[in-house]
Amino acid sequence: MEGTPWIPTRYRLRVKQRLAVVEYVRRYGIKPASRQFGLARPTVRQWWRNWQRAGIQGLVPQYPARRRRRISEDVVTLITQARLEHEFGASRTRIWLDRVHGIRVATETIQRVFRDIGVPHLVKTRRRRPKQLKLFEKERPGDSVQVDVKVVVRGRRKWFQYTAIDDCTRVRVLRLYRRQNHRSSLAFLRELTAAFPFQIRKIQVDNGTEFPLVFALSCQELGVRVRYIRPRRPEQNGKVERSHRIDEEEFWGRYAGQDFDAAHAALAAWEHQYNHERFSMALHGRTPMEKLAAMLAPPLVMARSERVTSEMASAPGLDLD
Fold first, then answer.
1. Rounded to whole angstroms, how far apart are CA atoms 187 and 82?
2. Is 320 helix (H, G, I), strand (E, B) or coil?
3. Is 60 within 8 Å of 91 (Cβ atoms)?
4. Spatial contact of 105 and 97, defined as CB atoms under 8 Å apart
5. How confident is the model at residue 98 (pLDDT cuts 50, 70, 90)?
6. When comparing pLDDT for 312 and 90, which is higher?
7. Backbone phi, then psi, for 26, in 5-degree steps?
8. C-beta of residue 141 within 8 angstroms of C-beta of residue 218
């Protein structure tokens, strides 16, 4: 309608409601309107005065453009660091602040800070056609341990096989769990750190919900670095993915048991067979334990050769020059 003042769309319903209160005040007064609509008299009186002064435009809410923050600038700095450096979302930032810095902030407040710094959403990974990656292996045992979960279907039930494989030696640790969640992941973390005969320096996992921030922080407490592979890049965890294919072909495809405890024991026997008995062409016909023994042997052999050389040099009548 011509001459009607412009009202923002988000406030039109509220203005319409206030206008109904003002019309009631004009007919019956402030006190009856307060009772009729269940509003405080000062509120009704203020709306009435605003309408008398500026008409409908006076009924438009006048909220501040920016509300004052209730958190300190130090907390804002930490939230900015979590967003820009670690690329955490609001939920992960909340856990990180509580776990690492002992600061509790609501998720909505963190998201508001994200909007204020101009990064409300993380940049999504562009989908591309995967390329064949260059095959490689780490130089030392424990430099990188790939961890993943294989779903085992047994009728209407599902079991979850947690697998850890050392990138260098292919030595594996296998455990079976009834559930796939962060509790199972933390239990498996304790298992694999106790089972591997070497120090783990890095664990590589995918971006599944079973490996949340709590898992990464627990690894850091053990002195283990965590690397999350890029989304939709299973080839970056190629060794553990390939080992799951071997499990399906050589173990689960032949195992028909339905009892969880029996399957857990059978999986332990399969782990021993894989590590100690099954030779691998990727290891030039050796087993993972043979590869591990070869990796640990050179220092012993060198020390022994140095001792023999020193004994020969000290023996009378021998000239090694």
1. 27
2. coil
3. no
4. yes
5. confident
6. 90
7. -65, -30
8. no
Predicted pLDDT at 203: 95
Identify whether the C-beta of residue 165 lies closer than 8 Å to the C-beta of residue 145.
Answer: yes
Q: Which CATH code is given to the segment(s) 145-283?
A: 3.30.420.10
Chain-centre distance for alpha carbon 109: 21
8 A C-beta contact, residue 260 and residue 237 = no
Question: Across residues 237-247, what is the average pLDDT?
Answer: 91
> Amino acid identity, residue 265?
A
Alpha carbons 170 and 212: distance in angstroms, whole number: 25
Order of strands, edge to edge, in the sheet holding 172-177?
172-177, 157-166, 145-154, 202-205, 225-228
- What stretches of the chain adopt beta strand conformation (E)? 145-154, 157-166, 172-177, 202-205, 225-228
Domain boundaries, the chain: 9-59, 73-116, 145-283
Alpha-carbon separation of residue 279 from 140, 197, 214, 275, 285 (angstroms): 20, 19, 37, 8, 5
Please state, in angstroms and as integers, the Cα–Cα distance from residue 285 to each residue in 39, 230, 248, following that order.
84, 32, 21
d(CA 205, CA 1): 62
Position 86 scores a pLDDT of 78
d(CA 37, CA 24): 10
Q: Looking at the whole model, is its pTM more than 0.85?
A: no
Beta carbons of 149 and 161 less than 8 angstroms apart: yes
